[in-house]
User: Fold Pyridoxal phosphate homeostasis protein from Novilysobacter erysipheiresistens.
Amino acid sequence: MNAISRMLDNAARDAGRPPPRLLAVSKTQPAAAVAALAALGQCAFGENYVQEAAAKQAELGRASPVSAGQEAPAGLEWHLIGHLQSNKAREAAALFDWVQTVDRAKLVAALARHRDPARGPLNVLVQVNIDDEASKHGCRPDEVEALAAAIAGEPMLRLRGLMVIPTPHDDPELGRPAFRRSRALFDALREHHPGVDTLSMGMSSDAAIAIAEGATMVRIGTALFGSRPAPPAAPSYTGR
Ligand SMILES: *Cc1c(COP(=O)(O)O)cnc(C)c1O
Assistant:
């Protein structure tokens, strides 16, 4: 993990930017792998599926994953980075500290309704479909302002910024324009929403370029944990 942190810090220094936050993407990894990184001081973890996160959190010490008012185990901060169906909003609002995949008004309302006030506001990022891919989740860039306004109007949500998953390229350099467009959108959003401080972009293969273009948080799985185990045939990891 130290090697990764150093790589990220170097990329930021080379670009004259502040070092980004590291989100450790623990999807498909066992709870023991999370505990091992937490012991090294890593506190923010990203999961793609509500069900998988619930099981892992329970294993790490949260007695009853979705009961009200409980904190995440051992000061860990959990981020949902996978697509969220509205019918899972209640569970997500209970299990996560951040939801990075808010891309429609219905989800804003559902998360706000279900967030337990005892937990404090849920941090949210608007997910933007920055490359306008038909198959991708995320709102259009021209929908960001309206969604941001809806989030800002909900006391139980805290608008923190934007999350993007640009089209993957064999040559990561080809992703640079999408990161640059994302940063411009982020800077525009900050003009109306001074609390916005997070631009989540960049994964194992393109983190350095994302950082150079202004990511404030990178989401790293493979480079931290090694390649992911093949998903099991059983539905336990799919959340469906
Ligand atoms: C899996 C995943 C990551 C991490 O990808 P790696 O290539 O393993 O670093 C980051 N963001 C999202 C949304 C993911 O689903």
